[in-house]
Queue: 2 jobs
Job 1
Amino acid sequence: MSYPYQIKSLESYNEAYKKSVEDPEAFWADVASNFQWRKKWDKVLNWNFKEPRIEWFSGGRLNITESCLDRHLEKLGEKPAIIWEPNNPEERTRIVTYERLHKRVCQFAQVLKNNGVKKGDRVCIYMGMVPELAYAVLACARIGAIHSVIFGGFSAQSIADRLEDAKAAFIVTCDGAFRGAKDIPLKSVIDDALIGNKMVKRVIVYTRTRTPVSMIKGRDVWWEDEMLKVTDTLGVEGFGDVEVMDAEDPLFILYTSGSTGKPKGVVHTCGGYMVWTNYTFVNAFQYQPGQVHFCTADIGWITGHSYILYGPLSAGATSVMFEGVPTWPDAGRFWDIVDKYKVNILYTAPTAIRSLMGFGLDPLKGKDLSSLKVLGTVGEPINEEAWHWYDEHIGKKNCPIVDTWWQTETGGLMITNLAGITPAKPSWATLPLPGVQPILVDENGKEVTEKAEDGYVKGNLCIKAPWPGMLRTTYGDHERCRTTYFATYENLYFTGDGALRDDDGFYRITGRVDDVLNVSGHRIGTAEVENAINMHASVVESAVVGYTHDIKGQGIYAYVTVTGLHGDEDSTRQDILQTVSRIIGPIAKPDKIQFVSGLPKTRSGKIMRRILRKIAEGQLEQLGDTSTLLDPAVVDEIKQGKL
Ligand code: 6R9
């Protein structure tokens, strides 16, 4: 494959950027012409941020899997599309060529159809990181079903909420998943999620751990049995056919946390998302044909959707998919994988880098790593120490590091340097990609252009104009999409992040300015955690804030008032953690719980989080004015508890 739209120099970046702003329609028409379309679009872009209504390539007809699979068959059929590394390094690797992937996707698409799945139906996917997860996702896309992948760390209750919100009637899962030393009983979690659920008609279960599972007649079927029914591919009418979709038909829903309420289902559509994930992949990582790309994310998050599956596959790349965790059986696992498959591009999260740094240099002994050409990070701001460690010990000062800022809602990378093409600056995401028009605004939505004392322009990060990969709505509730992203500031998409800009126009993302935490690169809303804590029988109320955590980036700190303790503080704490685990999942468990007799509130009854954040950070001398509080004595008590 060749990528005529790949930017090869700083000058051509500048040119591309300029054109993307001056004439976005011509710019994106050019890029989009490099994909497989059944019918060309009538209009490249229609938009307003008021409703909001965003349409890219409208009138265009396509199936994204034709660009990801079919078009590669002739020249790249024998080439690995997915290299799968099992949790246990002793187990056999699976290499899935483009031809094999195409076949499996077509087969599983047929399985879905046989089980009653139709275009537009929502299919919830709750699986470990096995190749079958990729088959399931792409098979949905092939028949026009809307996939909604749920990360394996979410609880039955979270799944139940998402199933209900998406009105999903179909589930694809595994009996269990291997992750490090643990076996996670996925099907059993699904069973709990389905208690009382009347909508789900079919659960397809792939056998991975062969852990005992309940199989309900008429509802649950085994993946392997269903696949056997379609092995005789010639006999099945319509086998391998694609559902031809409108560019703006939904491709998937992915739930993500916001500052209020339950997680919302971010909706991405077929045409724009395809173009955006491919364009950003090829440019930021400077992917060259034949290279091996290893994104360490889980497909349960947007990073896995865009940079394990759709971006690399539409580019005909080889994508490594890893079932396990970076520290098992030891902290050299990533480096073993890099050496084993001669990985050229490694894309991981700052939290993983910091955790591996903690093991020192021993796990790096005897590792070659010379195949690496480009390194990437995503998910949270990267601190300079981690950046330099990554540069020195992994990249051997020979690999550009791309710091990629983006979000579930943006579909793909937004602000990032281009590896080896545009300059890098430690802990700065640097420049916007072509098509991305950032703007920094103050609380009132007025553009900030003046530099602060430190020499940087500082503000809330918004985006002025649409890009092809942006979200189109939040599932089943367009008004929520409008109020969350487009109503804070008129005619702007609000990211929820704060940022700085330097004299070169580089951006540094400083973190969320709303009540969203970023724990190990996972987004969690403080309100969500509070609601879960408040479900515990003895809890009266709670306030959750983030605090700086050496490895996770942010940790979760909960202040809790209770009617009484059951046993001692510690046993009550454990009960609360169990409750949060049940309601949201283990990823949302607070790192610290402090029992308090009351929460600091204003006279109007609002919790003063600013103060609680300072206390959680240990900045006890900088609490500011507490005189407006209803009961200032509470603060002293909380401070003492902290000391
Ligand atoms: C892709 C992904 C989005 C939030 C985002 C921001 C933070 C992501 C970052 C970064 C600084 C980077 N974030 N990348 N902050 N530098 N390179 O992570 O999506 O899970 O939706 O999280 O993550 O705060 O708003 P998502």
Job 2
Amino acid sequence: THQWRGIIEEYRDRLPVSADSPVVTLREGGTPLVPAQVLSERTGCEVHLKVEGANPTGSFKDRGMTMAITRAKEEGAKAVICASTGNTSASAAAYAVRAGMVSAVLVPRGKIALGKMGQALVHGAKILQVDGNFDDCLTLARSLSDNYPVALVNSVNPVRIEGQKTAAFEIVDMLGDAPDIHVLPVGNAGNITAYWKGYREYAADGVATHTPRMWGFQASGSAPIVRGEVVKDPSTIATAIRIGNPASWQHALAARDESGGVIDEVTDREILRAYRLLAAQEGVFVEPASAASVAGLLKAAEQGRVDPGQRIVCTVTGNGLKDPDWAVAGAPQPVTVPVDAATAAERLGLA
Ligand code: F0G
């Protein structure tokens, strides 16, 4: 009887739904805010991880998708469409099933993690692999939703942002106030837009005394906002944020400037280092894109740009199981042993 009810029921008065809205939910949200001991020691700050990989389909997208699919159903849509680097498509496919709708997803060919593809497939999405990048997929999805009877559920749909802002509410509700800094990875820039909206709303209503500085990190090979220009052929191992022309670019700049924050970049090497640190030292397995937030925090700390004593939240956006290739790559092969305790003990260094 005390189960978390999903973000729409938990935050109904702060979301654009009515009493008659046909709520489509997998009980998303209510994700762990985990104190990060090693990161706190390294930065001299109080660092927490908002573990969004604990959502029903394994990423933060579910917060926006419960809103987008609820709205689509309310408006009588029979089909939904999205462009995706993987997580949005997994989420759209699952929520469409709950709503009894058909989902269509457009993904960049060869550039989405296997786990995410598996999710879209098993939930019965109609998948097109587009010969192009995410930005091309989004252009195509917009054009199809403009011209055919299919609702667009990308974060350019404003109700997606409404749903995703609830992560900021949860953080303030847990900590008792807003953190000093909020760090997150930036791809299409919907999520940084959403958090900033959530924090502003809570501050405006006096639930929080202040808003945090927003720190966003792009992957170096896909850093249009940092460069100030569209990246035609974005590249990074963090396929989730392999985006060269973010739809919410201007909103991301607003979040940065209004909050006194920064949008910077991290290299793939820095991302992988943070990815391994999170798994090996904090016990939190995330997908590579998610580690961009932590990589950015560590980089800033090493450059002396993080004053000690602050309260910092890093969002880690997606579950590590979605893209396990990077966990396996470069790791030593497990040793094979016979069914023999003495040998096993010896190989484990116990004897
Ligand atoms: N982290 C993960 C795991 C993501 O899947 C995404 C975006 C981001 C970070 C960046 O968030 O786009 O709001 O700035 N994934 C989208 C997708 C593009 O299609 O799943 P953003």
